[in-house]
């Protein structure tokens, strides 16, 4: 089974909460976002890493801002990443090696 990201799970939960607060079904959201209902379910369960196009379609359909869905997510929440440094940390490390 594929390893899904913690970030995808969190985003999916936030999308589901937004949809439920509006009283919409997954079918309603799929219709409004012009997506297949199966894909909406996969996004909400964190079983896929939604593309930017998918996130924009869902946010438009729900009249929601993407920043609320992705707030607090970090690169560490993506499985398989080997680079753990931020750009600032990387640049500091390079500078210290040159010194």
From TrEMBL:
SUPFAM superfamilies linked to this entry: lambda repressor-like DNA-binding domains
Listed A to Z, the keywords are: DNA-binding, Transcription, Transcription regulation
Cellular component terms (Gene Ontology): cytosol
Q: Where are the transmembrane segments?
A: none
- Transcription regulation keyword on record: yes
Residues folding into a coiled coil are none
Query: Can you name one GO molecular function term for this protein?
Result: DNA binding
Q: Quote the CDD domains the UniProt record gives.
A: HTH_XRE
Q: Which Pfam families match?
A: HTH_3
| Domain named HTH cro/C1-type: residues | 15-69
PANTHER family, from UniProt? HTH-TYPE TRANSCRIPTIONAL REGULATOR (PTHR46797), HTH-TYPE TRANSCRIPTIONAL REGULATOR SUTR (PTHR46797:SF23)
- Its recorded name reads XRE family transcriptional regulator
């Amino acid at each position: 089974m594929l390893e899904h990201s913690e970030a995808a799970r969190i985003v999916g939960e936030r999308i589901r909460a937004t949809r439920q607060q509006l009283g919409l079904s997954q079918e309603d959201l799929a219709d409004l976002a012009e997506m297949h209902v199966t894909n909406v379910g996969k996004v909400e369960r964190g079983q896929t890493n939604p593309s930017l196009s998918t996130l924009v379609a869902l946010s438009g359909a729900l009249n929601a801002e993407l920043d609320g869905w992705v707030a607090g997510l970090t690169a560490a929440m993506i499985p398989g990443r080997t680079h753990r440094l931020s750009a600032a940390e990387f640049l500091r490390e390079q500078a210290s090696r040159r010194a």
